Amino acid sequence: MNPEDIQIGSVQSLQWLWIVLLVFLFAALSLRWQRKAAMKFATAGMLPRLLPIRSVYRSAISLALVLAGMVLLVLCMVDVRWGKIQREVPQSGIEVMFVLDVSRSMMAEDVTPNRLERAKQMIKDTVDEMAGDRVGLTIFAGEARQQIPLTSHYDDFKQGLDSVGPSSLNRGGSRLGDAITVASRGFLEVTNDHKAIVLFTDGEDQESRPLEATRLAKDEKGIRIFTVGLGDLKTGARVPVNSARGDDFLTHSGKQVWSKLDGETLEKIASESGGAYIPAGTKQVNMGDVYHRYIAAVDQTQFETAKVDSYEARFQWFLAPALALLLLEVFWGGNRRSFAAENERVVDAG
Fold it and tell me: Phi, psi at residue 201, to the nearest 5°?
């Protein structure tokens, strides 16, 4: 059998082997203490009658049966699987298009380590709460582009998310309206509802009519938009030009540019679409709560049946012999106890 065709479901269950080792050590020490106690009160000629070799032999076999049964039960808990098969799994959920602002203002460090990296982590935290939803990614600055089409392969999505940044687009700036328009075109389902856009940005916009784009997305495709605002609302932060130099900041007309969170625009977008505005600001936000409270409330739909590769569970291959060994020990132990009682009567008679 090829090792690559074997799957371990719960490798952490191997820690229970410590109990098997403890049982073995306790049994060995118990036998040793028993022998020492017998040597204190018995003569050399009487010792073989108190602890005959047959009794030690039977005890060893009984212990071996118990330990082997316990090891097999641990392997049963480890959930070893092999034999790959394909199953058809009906899928249901919602389609979520994440829209990420990758403009230079998202490099501001009023959020640790910066707004863009915090937004990426928040997206990952949201995806970690999903099961069956489709996710996609649209990025924007002075232009907008669908970066990752809708997919249910979350690991691939996260890898694609890690690779985006200000250099992913050629045109600088921040056009929220264009981002919403491009994102609304990326949904696969034709019917309305069960669609959501989750927008991560500091809210800056260059007259791209985001509210008009929001109304069209809502009216024509039933899309609800959830906005997450990043950045300091009052003071803001300077925009780094070169992340390698801490004193190199973006300037305009000889003055340093300070970027602030525009929560008002984001709140209007969410309200217009029937979504919700999450003013993250500079704080840590539990995106699991945000997903379950807001995004997951969008009506789900039934997607096409997917073929999923899975491995056959083989726990019964370990459970059956484990039970057999433990039952055998019960009968063996009964015979051993009968032998011990008989041996005690012989000793008493002697």
Answer: -165, 170
Q: Which domains does the chain have, with CATH numbers?
A: 3-85+311-349 (no CATH), 92-304 (3.40.50.410)
- How many angstroms separate the CA atoms of 67 and 73, rounded? 10
Residue 327: is its pLDDT beyond 80?
Answer: yes
pTM for the structure as a whole:
0.61
Selection from 302, 303, 270, 311 nearest residue 80 by Cα: 311
Cβ distance 107 to 166 under 8 Å?
A: yes
> DSSP of 326-337, one letter per residue?
HHHHHHHHHHHH
| CB neighbour list of residue 5: distance below 8 Å, 6 or more residues apart | 82, 83, 84, 311
Helices (H), the chain: 17-41, 47-50, 53-78, 115-127, 154-162, 176-184, 210-221, 263-273, 287-293, 316-349
DSSP letter (8 states) at residue 52: -
Please, is 233 exposed, middle or buried when counting C-beta atoms within 10 Å of its C-beta (0-12, 13-18, 19+)? middle
Q: d(Cα 150, Cα 257) in Å, to the nearest integer?
A: 36
As beta bridge partners, residue 201 has 229
pLDDT (0 to 100) of residue 280: 95
